[in-house]
Write a structure and sequence with these properties.
- By secondary structure, this protein is mainly α.
- It is built from four helices and no strands.
- Helix 1 runs antiparallel to helix 2.
- It is flat, with a radius of gyration of 24 Å.
C-alpha cells in the first residue's frame, strides 16, 4: 500500500473520529436522560446520537471494508501483473453479472402485459 493511500486512510479516520465521539456522547446522554424520566431531552439526544454515531461508525466500517478490498486487489495485481482478468474474483470464475440484469429481465417479462402509457407531450 502506497504512502498516499495510508495518509488518505489516516485523514479519513481523523475526519470520522468526531462523528463517532459525538454519537457515543449524545447516545449516553440520551440514555441517562431516559433513565431519569426526562423524555424531552432523551428523544432528541438519542436521535442525534444515533444519527451521528450511525454516520461515523457506518463510514468507519466502509473504510475498513474498502481497505481490505484494496489490499486484496494489490495482492492479486502483484501475483498476476500481466493478467488483469485475474484481478477480479468473478472474472476468474468466468461469471459476470450486469448490475441491471434483473431489472431488464423484469421489464421484458412485464412488457407484453403492461398497457402502453401516454406521455405528457401526447395528451
Amino acid at each position: 500500500m502506497g504512502a498516499k493511500t495510508v495518509i488518505g486512510y489516516g485523514c479519513f479516520l481523523l475526519f470520522l473520529t468526531p462523528f463517532c465521539g459525538v454519537g457515543i456522547f449524545m447516545t449516553v446522554r440520551g440514555l441517562q436522560a431516559a433513565m431519569t424520566g426526562d423524555w424531552g431531552e432523551a428523544g432528541p439526544s438519542l436521535l442525534f446520537g444515533l444519527l451521528f454515531g450511525g454516520v461515523g461508525f457506518g463510514l468507519l466500517a466502509a473504510l475498513f471494508y474498502g481497505r481490505k478490498k484494496q489490499q486484496e486487489l494489490e495482492r492479486l495485481q502483484g501475483e498476476h501483473p500481466a493478467e488483469p482478468w485475474l484481478w477480479r474474483s468473478d472474472w476468474v470464475r468466468q461469471h459476470t453479472r450486469h448490475p441491471y440484469s434483473r431489472r431488464g429481465a423484469r421489464l421484458l417479462r412485464s412488457a407484453p402485459t403492461d398497457p402502453p402509457r401516454a406521455s405528457p407531450q401526447h395528451r
